[in-house]
């Protein structure tokens, strides 16, 4: 494959990742206010608003969890492109349904639909990137995948908070659908998704299909090694912490710090910006200073400690500063974990990344639910407990290092035996 063609493919995949995460980011600062408006309109108990915010956040990754491995297997069978296209179509429909919702029920339907179809985009896109890059450059390209994802979280909250507070006085109802100023950011996301869908359909080349017998031969042997299980546990912990923080921060900022949606959006923008800038930096230059596992351990320490400190701050600028510290820690962890999973198996990359994505989804399900549940006790509980979980996970990195040494030792013994046996 020529360098120019490879770069074009990488750009289209990163564009797909960006637009999907942009839609995710648009909802972050507006969800508490949007949910509150629909709950009051539907004469629902206002004491349950935080519960609905947590459930609406969790139901999206729950359906991603149910369908992500299915999409991964289909992508191995039919190629990555048609699955990515299906995901983008679902994304466009989800944004339309979200923007035009007139009740919490419709919002739940939109989130469920989006969870089913957008689970086809992120893991399959990462598998596509893995297919067209060498093992040597895998960590770097996965970091750029992280940049695309983080960039969506940078611009999404800014777009969502700005467009939802515009002076556009639109109010129009068509049956069950309702158009007003809260609809504008989601209609913008659906239009952008439609453009990206057209571009990807026209110009992205499909990847080669993985032969069926190859997938069956390798799957069980590589997928559930102890090394892989530890990687999945670490992926779960970091995603649990990140989504708990995202959900609780939006409520904490609204109710405790008296932030408006713009201030909450700035917090999410800072988080996404730091991750977008630092992930490729750590992936490219990090190993010159620290090994991959030491980067993961240090990242867990930084992010865990910052979560514990977070509820003790109430100054706006100190809150933003701690968000930057937290995002720095996460940026050290995520690309290294994704790269490690992608290197496990050459023939089952799509499925392995999908399994990791399923594990991430479990963290994304439990984070918002447990976070909003703990909020009933105190604003301190979700941040401190999540921080402690992240710090305890550092012990898994030590175990990961032991497993890695064992795998390398076994490989070396096998090579020596093969050499002694002769041709």
TrEMBL record:
Organism, by scientific name, is Aequorivita vitellina
UniProt keyword Mitochondrion, yes or no: no
Alphabetic keyword roster: Membrane, Transmembrane, Transmembrane helix, Transport
Q: Does the keyword Transport apply?
A: yes
Q: Give GO MF terms, alphabetically.
A: transmembrane transporter activity
Provide the membrane topology annotation.
Multi-pass membrane protein
Q: What is this protein called?
A: MFS transporter
Report domain Major facilitator superfamily (MFS) profile positions: 9-405
Return the SUPFAM superfamilies for the record: MFS general substrate transporter
UniProt-annotated location(s) = Membrane
Chain ranges passing through the membrane: 12-31, 51-71, 83-102, 108-129, 141-163, 183-204, 224-252, 264-284, 296-313, 319-341, 353-373, 379-400
Query: What GO cellular component is one of the record's annotations?
Result: membrane
